[in-house]
Fold each of these.
Amino acid sequence: MIGIYFSGTGNTKYCLEKFVALYDRKVEIIPLEDAGTPEKMAYHKDIIFAYPIYYSNLPKIVRDFICENSDVWRGKRIFIITTMGLFSGDGAGVSARLFKRYGAQVWGGLHLKMPDCICDVKALKRTPAQNKQIVMKAEERIKSAIYNLKNGTPTKNGLGLLCHIAGLLGQRLWFYHKTQEYSAKIQIDSSTCIKCGKCAAVCPMNNLSLSEDKVIADGRCTLCYRCVNQCSKKAITILGKQVIFQHSVYDFH
Ligand SMILES: Cc1cc2nc3c(=O)[nH]c(=O)nc-3n(C[C@H](O)[C@H](O)[C@H](O)COP(=O)(O)O)c2cc1C
């Protein structure tokens, strides 16, 4: 078994780490953006595949990874974990349908509500105490999902027809376009930016680079919010205009 994940700001990585620690400590987990990931995946029949939900859909980087490696999924058994700030409907279902199309068996699905990572928009902001509660509840859900998996009755969150309809009507139909292409929305305030290069170093898309006097974005942002949450000068925004509360799940631990 191997764990593959995409995690913009740490929630999904955190959940997968917890999952694996309780299920089988020997399972390796690797980020999907690492160059060697598809090759490593090929050696394992069982895969735990984890990602965050964007607009009740797959982040573009995750969809591309699944489609670009379409020949790897045949014969695999995949357990899907998704994290979300509030609701997704069929968060696990959106990748499950692709995996099935490429010949994989979907083993189960687990939806985990986690703190919201969009740190430049006021909606869904909670106090640290509330976020801690949310993380603790997610950990409880992970424990019971593992109990079910070990007993041969894996959870099926987000995989049924009703979930599919809820995902479509809840958000995806209206926001479909937001995750179909990479984005050029990112803004870097050059009066605050100190050109430390951290944003460029952490970007999973290699979308950011340092020129002589500023950071340049190349229009390939997957909206993961890693740079926005990690910029020490709060100089980067995407959907909002000002950074309100930078997020790290490890603060609530
Ligand atoms: C662009 C974007 C869109 C999002 N859309 C949703 C959504 O539709 N529903 C939801 O519950 N959470 C949504 N979220 C919140 C994230 O899914 C959530 O915070 C997730 O746990 C982040 O995981 P990560 O830290 O591993 O990146 C969205 C986040 C971003 C950045």
Amino acid sequence: MSFDTDENGYNDSNRAFLQAFLARGSMTFAEARPVLAAIFSVQEGQPTQAEDVTEDDLASYIAAANTAISPFDLEIRSTLRQTTSTRPNGDDGNGTQEIRAAERVYALVNTTSDALTQLASIYSADEIAFVKRVLDAMFDTHNTRRSEAMVVTGIQAMQLAKAASGSQGVGGAAQSLPMSQAESVMKQLVDEGWFEKSRKGFYSLSPRALLELRGWLVATYNDDEDEEAPQKIKFCAACRDIITVGQRCGNRDCSGRLHDMCVRNFFRAQKAEQCPACKAPWPGDKFVGERAITTSEQYQQGKRRSTNTQQQGNREERPTAAASTPDQDDAEE
Ligand SMILES: [Zn+2]
Ligand SMILES: [Zn+2]
């Protein structure tokens, strides 16, 4: 097979990579390796192993792809996955979730419109209004001073299928969705890589969605009038990226937040385990994200009760009623 190269050095191997990328919407280095190995094998006429593909190879293909797609207001951007705990098969089976080296996720981002606008081509206005209610639940209702969970359970999502009376959708009053339709929208959003569902049954925004929605989330949920006001959308003090899973300062009114994977290097550099914002000792066991719920006394009690009453059969973990209540550490305040 010959590879026609244009004046910019862009050839069929670049086109093949871009096609594979567009088909997926997002990719990690591990996922890109076999794709590039297959392309190199054809290009060089001899087999290339996935292990032989380097990060530099990927970087050069991403750069070429970005040049090709920029006229269409598209760009491949990358972010580090905040944690490995929500990764499919990321659990070691012992119930412990080791924090491994963070994985970089590359995703196709539309540079001129936000993800909600793009969803309009796939979903109906009422479905998008439902997605907006789910996002409001994640980033407003379940993201408070008392509990920065930024997740919803499947049951909570189903409760959002019903539109509040008088609520506005795109171009008119939003209609409620039948439960089955809401369920299929949630499933589709997971399949398309916008939402992730954790082992414990919580839905959160995927790295890809966070890349796309960062600006929209800040504009929608943060108060830019009053800079002193506590902000709903917060950023890691170490890497400056958005934080929806990680650790928080022991003082609920402090804005100090760090990703789990950023903590170690940050404190090593600082030579003290202090909050980056207020300098108080860093607790290390105060969380944002799903663990704001799962480490709470109420959630643990709910689990104990449900394991006792639930004999056998349904082995899927279900978040209990306690899922929507904040963690219990009033004592610290
Ligand atoms: Zn960070
Ligand atoms: Zn602090």
Amino acid sequence: MTASAILSKTYKGKWALVTGASAGIGVALAEDLAAAGANLVLTARRVDRLEALAQRLQEQHGIQTRVIPADLADPAAPQQLYEATEGQGLEIDLLINNAGFGYLGEFLRSDLAFQRTMVDVNCAAVVDLTHRYLPGMVKRRRGDILILASTAAYQPVAYMATYAATKVFDRYFAEALAEEVGRYGVRVSALCPGPTESEFGQVAGSRKEEKRKYQPAAEVARLGLEGLVQGKTWVIPYSGGRIQVFAQRFVPRRIITKAAEKMFRPDTVK
Ligand SMILES: NC(=O)c1ccc[n+]([C@@H]2O[C@H](COP(=O)([O-])OP(=O)(O)OC[C@H]3O[C@@H](n4cnc5c(N)ncnc54)[C@H](OP(=O)(O)O)[C@@H]3O)[C@@H](O)[C@H]2O)c1
């Protein structure tokens, strides 16, 4: 069976909740799931974008959609989101914890509120949503959870210190949970992209580097979903990233960390 046939067999007519569905990888995940016949709950802060996406996917694929705006930096948001889907009688069979953002620059000179919010959105909201939707999946003996980590989760990254640390959290959380809940028929996977075409750099305050290769978000989304349904507990969606992560095992972490510091050092730091 082809990967797209497996996706369709798994998700056709089921409800998927995608966080961060207003841009980048979240849009691409929603597009793939809609093509597979999944019904979608789309959430993020920019409601106009969510509504336009929902309408387009409904028309293209004849699926059902719901738009529920939420700011996941608000500690009350995951519960409100959960109550909204429960209140509408939607059984969420696929939870995608995709919303997230980064910051590139010196931690010392960064805004504390921005750093705190990064931890709230990238980590706390992921734990909260997962804890709320997991029991229903276990009860039904089926369900999937995809968590966006990053290749930044494989080593400390100076000038992205908090961001990389949040992504280690996401990756370890996903991989550990996968081992806990597999016995209940629930699959969990950490999707670990490298540089991907999206609005991430703009939000993180980094300039787009012409020499750097950015992977299309559609490719990242497709490989992440395929890995999830194939039962992979983590996916690095490009060969360069897999090679880098493998090779790093043979080099002391201090050396890797120093190399990353040189690579990401802003021009303002002498
Ligand atoms: N692009 C990359 O190179 C890359 C690499 C590795 C991992 N990732 C991970 O992939 C995920 C998606 O990022 P992306 O690259 O697609 O970036 P993006 O284009 O900037 O999209 C980020 C999404 O997260 C949502 N979001 C941000 N803050 C939020 C908040 N407070 N409440 C609710 N939603 C919020 C945004 O929606 P609103 O602004 O409308 O709320 C947007 O939909 C992130 O977890 C990121 O860490 C990205």
